Amino acid sequence: MGQIRDKILPSDFEGEMAGCLGDLGIRSNDHVYVTGNIAALGRVRIRKEQKKALLLKAFQDTIGSNGTLFSPAASMNLCNMDVPFDLRMTPSHQMGAFAEYLRKKSEAERSLHPFWSVSGIGPEAHRLRRVSRHSYGAGSPWSIFLKLDVTQVNIGVHPSKAVTLIHHIETTIGVPYRYTKEFMHPIRYPDDIVIEPYYMSVMYKDSDIQKRVLLNEHYFEALDEKGLLMKREHPSGLNLWSFKMRDFYETVINFFIDKKSEFVTGQVIYLAGII
Q1: 2 domain-assigned
Q2: How many whole angstroms separate alpha carbon 47 and alpha carbon 101?
Q3: Which long-range contacts (CB under 8 A, 24 or more apart) does 51-56 make?
Q4: Which domain holds residue 245?
Q5: Residue pair 245/229 in contact by the 8 Å Cβ criterion
Q6: How far is CA 84 from each of CA 44, 180, 191, 196, 240, rounded to the nearest angstrom?
Q7: Is the pTM of this model over 0.85?
Q8: What is the C-alpha to C-alpha distance for residues 230 and 24, in angstroms, rounded to an integer?
Q9: Is 137 a member of any domain?
Q10: 3-state DSSP call for residue 45?
């Protein structure tokens, strides 16, 4: 753990962030999905826009021209509303300042889903142009990330609190506390607005969310025990984590196999006594 400083200057920020990314195992040609809260970088004395630009540069310098940077661009606030989704103009909602900054870049690609989209910059971002109408599962951005062996980086928020990939895995497994719901939603195209079907994997109302939270914590404890969860503290005191999405996927799948979980209506009972 390095020394926490009271002030981080612009001249130091980019290099120190790139150093953190390197310590997290991020290398040239890597594909990275970043999420979290850069607002926690409170000791960094840099204007907000400059901070976001320097953070992007730190990522791009680390992964190089062959690496791709992805970030959430979800707009769940449109769910059950008649507001048309515009691929280019609809802002992300509560995804964080950096995610919105990335989405608004002129070179960014964005997956077409009115509620759960993803944006990306780099040579593999074009894959977001052809995704399914489902938020998770086969053909979704999450299946693309697994094929690309994407590394997730969490800034300021522990991965157990921000790991959308778990919903993709639950959908793939077919857990009984989730079901697929169809939404008819207006999509704005250059010449027209068309109402189209899109699909979300949602939890039943009687599902025990707290047990799901505890289970996420267990997954990352298991990942950490295997040395597959990396953590680094930025000189501002902000924590960053990284893990391979494939490693997380395999950890979750193996849990259901090794622990011989039993599914019951609306929840999961774990025979191993974890919960």
Answers
A1: no
A2: 14
A3: 51/13, 52/97, 52/98, 52/101, 53/101, 54/10, 54/13, 54/14, 54/17, 55/14, 55/17, 55/98, 56/98, 56/101, 56/102
A4: 10-269
A5: no
A6: 38, 21, 13, 11, 35
A7: yes
A8: 6
A9: yes
A10: coil
Does residue 107 lie within any of the structural domains? yes
Task: Tell me what the mean pLDDT of segment 231-236 comes to.
Answer: 88
Q: Which residues are CB-contacts of 227 (< 8 A; sequence separation ≥ 6)?
A: none
What's at 205, amino acid-wise?
K
Tokens of 7: 């002030």
SS3 at position 110? strand
Q: How far apart are CA 96 and CA 186, in angstroms?
A: 25
Tokens of 227: 């040395």
Helices (H), ranges, the chain: 10-23, 48-63, 97-103, 141-148, 165-173, 209-225, 245-258
Strand order in the sheet with 239-244: 109-110, 118-121, 68-72, 31-36, 151-155, 239-244, 230-233
- Contact (CB, 8 A) for 236 and 4: yes
Number of folded domains that form the chain: 1
Percent of the chain topping pLDDT 70: 88
Please give the structure tokens belonging to residue 187: 């999509």
Contact 249, 161 (CB under 8 A): no
CA distances from 52 to 71, 95, 96 (A): 13, 14, 11
For residue 241, the cross-strand partners are: 154, 231
In angstroms, rounded to a whole number, what is the distance separating the alpha carbons of residues 34 and 11?
23
Whether pLDDT at 269 is above 60: no
Query: What digits encode the pLDDT tens for the residues 42-66?
Result: 566 778 888 899 999 999 999 999 9
**Mean pLDDT of the chain, nearest integer:** 88
